[in-house]
Amino acid sequence: MDRQHGTRATISDVARVAGVSRQTISNVLNNPERVRPETRERVLAVIDEQGYRPNAAAKQLRQRRAHALGIELDVTGNRRVSGVLTAFLVESVLAARTHRASIVPFVSADHERPEPEFDDLVRRQMVDGFIIVDTRLGDPRPAWLRERGIPFVSFGRVWDDPEHTAWADVDGAAGTATAVEHLVAGGAHQVAFLGWPSGSPTGDERRLGWQRATRAAGIEDPSLVQESVQDVSEATLAAAGLVRRLNPGDAIVCASDELAMGALRAARAAGLTPGLDCSVVGFDDGPLAEALGLTTLRQPVSEIAQHLVAVATGLGDGDDPPAHGRLALPTLIVRATSIRRATPEEEEGRS
């Protein structure tokens, strides 16, 4: 850090120089009895050397508990919240009740620069910390919160900071691999993939699971990949090229339910009946999946919400963050859009 240019020291600077975690710095300042004397003295010396001054708003936050956690909702564009996030919000409210806490949902004027809204909630002492969702590369929120010592957890990994461990996420690679195994067991000889444009860590991970599973089954074909933005009409166009390449009984695994809806449209436009002539599998198990009879991967939203609320309320009490983040396995929900080969027992019952 350049002291000559008057750059203000942050908690991350102190942690790096002292060779300890940010939570240890927080404990030295707020719960010194939790820190070994020699570590405490070393940290205090670095704080003095660096001229670090804790953020006043964050200090007030620790001294006066609101017993509430903020969750920012991204409603830019169509002003709708995704089905997964809606379910997560409900499960977080239920989980918070068991900790005698509340959830405060809020929106930002600019989702790319949401700091003013976060700062407003902190200064008005409406929350003790935050659960951030929709994490992404270049996300400005984690660094902003860390530098001010404000507790937070995340639904999704903080991709720019592997040291951040207070997160829970869905194992997307395991999910799409499970989908491929299900489809191969149902008789598919080719399994295509319809995903988001590369560069999305979540989408890239889901594609990786498809790649590993098709390779393990001896059917990997990199040419059977198409990309689409999260839009049914665009996904329909992208899936049409895959549908033309597939033989009867083959399948498409999709990175989301919305992409899968496009694949269903493309299959039907080609005169195919999903579940009879081909298979389509989505990811998320959103509100329309059951109505469409879509085979999909259900995110374990309740498990994730319970874990994150428990960790977040503990951080507000000065607890150390968990040693590792948590990857939760999605569940394959088999419905009408995937072909399932009859078991020997079922075949016998038909004869």
Q: Mind explaining what this structure looks like?
A:
The chain is an alpha/beta fold and 351 residues long. The protein folds into 3 domains: 3-54, Orthogonal Bundle (434 Repressor (Amino-terminal Domain)), CATH 1.10.260.40; 66-169 and 303-328, Response regulator (Rossmann fold), CATH 3.40.50; 172-299 and 333-341, Response regulator (Rossmann fold). The protein has 14 helices and 12 strands. The protein has helices at residues 11-18, 22-30, 37-50, 56-63, 83-98, 115-123, 141-147, 172-185, 201-216, 232-245, 257-269, 289-292, 301-316, 344-350; strands at 68-73, 102-107, 129-133, 152-155, 167-170, 191-195, 225-227, 251-254, 279-281, 296-298, 326-328, 331-333. A 6-stranded parallel sheet has the order 2-1-3-4-5-11, sandwiched between helices. It has a 4-stranded parallel sheet with strand order 7-6-8-9, sandwiched between helices. Strand 6, helix 9 (201-216) and strand 7 (225-227) form a beta-alpha-beta unit. Helix 5 crosses helix 13 (301-316), helix 8 (172-185) packs parallel to helix 9 (201-216) and helix 10 (232-245) packs across helix 11. The protein is elongated. 42% of the residues are buried.
Write the layout of secondary structure elements.
Elements: H1 11-18, H2 22-30, H3 37-50, H4 56-63, E1 68-73, H5 83-98, E2 102-107, H6 115-123, E3 129-133, H7 141-147, E4 152-155, E5 167-170, H8 172-185, E6 191-195, H9 201-216, E7 225-227, H10 232-245, E8 251-254, H11 257-269, E9 279-281, H12 289-292, E10 296-298, H13 301-316, E11 326-328, E12 331-333, H14 344-350
Parallel strand pairs: 1-2, 1-3, 3-4, 4-5, 5-11, 6-7, 6-8, 8-9
Antiparallel strand pairs: 10-12
